[in-house]
Amino acid sequence: MTIRNLDNLLHPPSVAVIDASHPRGLAVLRNLRAGGFAGPMIAVETGVAEVDGTRAVGSIAELDVPPGLAVLAGPVGEMPARIAELGAAGWRMALVVSAEEGVDPVLRQAMLDAAQPHMLRIIGPGSFGLIAPYARLDASLSPIATTEGGIALLSESGSIASALLDWAASHAIGFSAVMSLGGRVDVGLSDCLDLLAGDPHTRAILVYMESIPDPRRFLSAARAAARLKPVIALKAGGSPQAAEAAETHTGRLSGTDAVIDVALRRAGILRVRGLSELFAAAETVSRFRPMQSSRVAIVTNSGGAGVLALDRLAETGTPLAQLEPATLEKLAAALPRTCSPRNPVDLADDAEPERYLAALDILAADRHVDVLLVMCCPTERGLPCAVAQALAGRADRGRIAGKPVLACWMGGATAHEARAVLREGGIATHDAPAAAAAAAAHLTDWSRAQAALLHVPDRRSEEVLAAAPDAREQVAAVFAEVAAQGRHRLTSAEAGEVLAAYGIPVARSRIASKVEEVGRIAAEMLADGGRLAVKVLSSDLPHRSDVGGVVLDVATGEEAGAAAAGIAARVARDAPGARIDAYELQPMVVRAEAIELILGVATDPIFGPVILFGAGGLAVEIVRDTAIALPPLDSGLAAELVGRTRVSAQLAGYRGRPAADLASLNGALIALSHLIEDFPCLRSVDVNPLVADPRGIIALDMSVEFDPSELAVKPPNPHLAIRPYPTEWRRTIERPEGAYELRPIRPADALLYPAFLDRVSREDMRLRFLAVRVHFPEEFALRWTQLDYDREMAFVALTPEGELAGVSRVVAAPDHLSGEYSLLVRSDLQGRGIGAALMRILIEYARADGMDRLEGMVLAENRAMQGLVGHLGFTIAPILDDPGVVMSTLFL
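Given the sequence above, the corresponding structure tokens read:
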């Protein structure tokens, strides 16, 4: 769904509690009164005039308050009937706090069927409730009062929500909203993220999630929200069983929990591993903007505490700042000889406020330092409270010289007052070295996740390797031929054809259909010297090395024939059910400086296709130096994937050995991404080994598996969790002043919006937004440009100079049968056909998406817009309850 009818959720005009005498209903009523909800509040209970002091009516039909939030507390089996009554009475939001036990698929569907004719939305069943402190609304089962704050909490578990509220109360943490989603019959995480992204009271969103039933919708909503404010998630790990059952190396190495990690990072979300980290992470990342890097400098009065922080930084991969020589000299000159000027900077146990400030000022001036971690242990000669006061006085909004400050004041009673001073001074503080170092890691991880948000791979500009012009047709023909033979797994030779078509260099081989042919073909191949590898071809053997199906360093035709005969004997003995299709003879690739790698594609049960990269060879599953990514990829994402492995250090060159051809390696990863986009039928790819050295890359052994039943499914791949950038919708229009480019909007276009809006007149602003708008906050441009290309599409027109000339947009209804359009063209460029071109491509897109109509409201006085859409076939009709606005509709 969408946020339709959720807009009043945080500020409902009224609250009705249905089955209010039920224990859960009574709990909600009491919390509503204790919270001070100011709107009308009414109970529904048969045969009574009031429930626990709240006025009651006997049925839903008798409700006499403006429809708002209905809380349902009775037996869950009665919910479909209650929901139907509420919808008929004009209510649009139901919060079901009834127990979730007994909610089977039939009952879930019955609740939805009852709600949908009225567009009534449902939270629950089994919801712990809803709390909106700024509306003084506590429609929950919580025994703990909640105060106002800037954090929103979304939880799929009522017990976890309760525990978090208890912990937050003990730490004086307030909330902008608390939502417990329960069984998620209707409203889910995606809807709530969309809602909270636009909530002015929410500065950070915490999410506890247990499942992701619709990954594309979730990632779309998460990406939109994370562009505007920090989103921090705690997700229980995925089960390893699916990975263990996989036949390919890539499948076994692509565990669900690892995929969850990369999916959340790609959505701009910071993932934490424990409940206590949720709030600590929110306190840290909500204070600071993402950074290019987060190299940490530590200042401490205890060497042991510094070592503990170092250990945690190393575990999380957070870099320690390498101080400049000039910084070391200044520290040595400013500090007593009992101190250590190296990072971590140990100020000794008698450190006074002045010593701390001197060290911090010197470190903050070092260009290699991004984050300052200040630590203080209680000592006989130390002054923890005085140091805290000095630090709070020096810091400006939690920064020194613009660099984030994280604090760790250890101890109990002696540190309590100091921590309060630091918090009042706007400095994020922690009570243990590991927690403070984890906060620095949070900054690192969040910054990396935010950087991933900027990547929207544009296929047309990412063709690194030389793919065949008809690559898609070539590969489709291979799949069709294999499917006609009743197979779903390609031989190594067939897999090589597929990879080569997309530009990945493959070691060329020849095929012998029988053992008797192997010697003759080998002799021909060895006429000019060299060595061969003899390999069995069998679609029944995903790992032919496991049964001795590969023989290396064959020097003569006789040796090759003997090798093939030996392979046949071993397969018959160790895999008696496997069919031998043929024998592959491949020249040995001898490269002294080559590094063996693995590239692969696996299908995750939640997020669909994933790409794997890492160290390859026979011991790949033992070494386990791999990383995964969600397609689509561009060169930046491919390089980031490579960089998350240990083997990347070898690839970059070391001890005089030259670097491998990283551009070709990145190109191979992008080629795999394109293959995934083009073939929804693809299920797995294993390229192991792929060797890389300064001369380039070459795939030596490979396998591909596909689903023949999906051969007819057209690209782009619907299984992708992130929809590819729709490159196919690029157009060009010629005007006297030059060519204008029309294309789908990209996140980077947010940078073009300020200059664009500056050249739109106040009158055009009023006509477009139905009200006078002079200023738009930065988050508006981010929201307008961060799309999922699924539920929303926008096209931009760019001038020959690359400036933004106009934007057309369509937002699809939940069922994608209709869409609401909008159009804005720069005032000084109107009358040149730009608006008509933007509307035509929007109409073309809506038809291709399967919509049956486009509609949009236009001011009655806006004759120019009415004329434009009328010329394009729209009908214009008045809106009866608003004579100043007309509705324009195009039936597609």
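The CA atoms of residues 592 and 721 lie 40 Å apart. Try to locate this feature in the token string yourself.
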